[in-house]
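Database export, one record per block. Field names are fixed; values are copied verbatim from the stored entry.
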Amino acid sequence: MAEPETETSDLSARAAEVAAELTEEERPQERGRAVSAFISRAASSGARIAASSARAAGRGTRAVRRRASSGIDWLSDQAVEMAPRLRVRNRAALRAQFPGMSADDIADALIERAARASAVAGGAGGMAAALPVLTAFPLELAAETLVLVGIEVKLIAELHEVYESPAPGKNLADRMRAYLAAWAHRRGVFMIEDGLIFAAGSPLARTLRRRLAARAGRSAFSLGPFLTGATVGALFNRRETRKLGRDIQRDLRRRALESRW
């Protein structure tokens, strides 16, 4: 049997790829099958890992709590690893893709595309749910959550590009982790307090962990009964991504206005 590290080693990379494909696709519904396949593969791996972990750690309440807690820590690590792998279009590429449109119009288009992509991911998660009993932290839930976070972090990064306020950083990894921090705080990069340190126990690490736990918990609705889960997941994700995009857009507009005075 493969070790958990082997089973999940490419999860963040594939999640980043799926997030980009969904966001940049004119008709993201066409990518729904690819998302379902990705989540189903994660579910299959999760079933094997859960069985192994249960035998090794026991099945009591304390064991379940330990696995759930360590699962959030693991998911946080995966999100940090995924962020630099996201494909982000710079201002020039976005201007070329949306010729003749104002910054606000481009931002509106990006937010709506990301909202549609999130809806597809949520619907695919509901359609892919296959385990009859959820484990403490099933990998299919982690897979869907990572795709959703990827869509939203990519959106945040491209909104910063549109409004000519890119994140500072020595390299791509630094800048993308700044956007992940912005996702955790639901604020523009320039408004984040407490620094950009993801070290265990840091304020940012705790904020990211709480946000991921909440996002994963709400995403669990999409793993409900076959059609109900798909519908709820799609509607919820569309609303959440659109709201996040509007929050970031509002911050960036304010920053742009302040810089003119």
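Remark 1: Residues 4-260 form one domain.
Remark 2: The chain has ten helices and no strands.
End of record.
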